[in-house]
Design brief:
mainly alpha, flat
Length: about 80
């Protein structure tokens, strides 16, 4: 199991705003001081991931984990 963190914006946010936010977060994540803090926290950022790739990751994780969570939350 892999744990990940991400950020989101409200549905309907213009694609150019989504891309700009992604680019700014990637720029910040490339800063050596930020990278040091990530490493210190045991995090491995993936700033090169594009919004569409992130959406696919979310969809894949939902498809994978939803049935498991539903099955594990049923009373015996």
């Amino acid at each position: 199991m892999v744990t990940w963190f991400g950020y989101g914006v409200p549905a309907g946010t213009p694609p150019e705003i989504v891309q700009r936010l992604r680019d700014e977060f990637a720029k910040a994540a490339a800063d050596p001081a930020v990278q040091a803090k990530f490493k210190e926290a045991g995090l491995d950022p993936i700033p090169q991931m594009q919004p569409a790739e992130f959406a696919k990751l979310i969809d894949a994780d939902l498809a994978k984990w939803t049935p498991i969570i539903k099955a594990s939350s049923k009373p015996d």
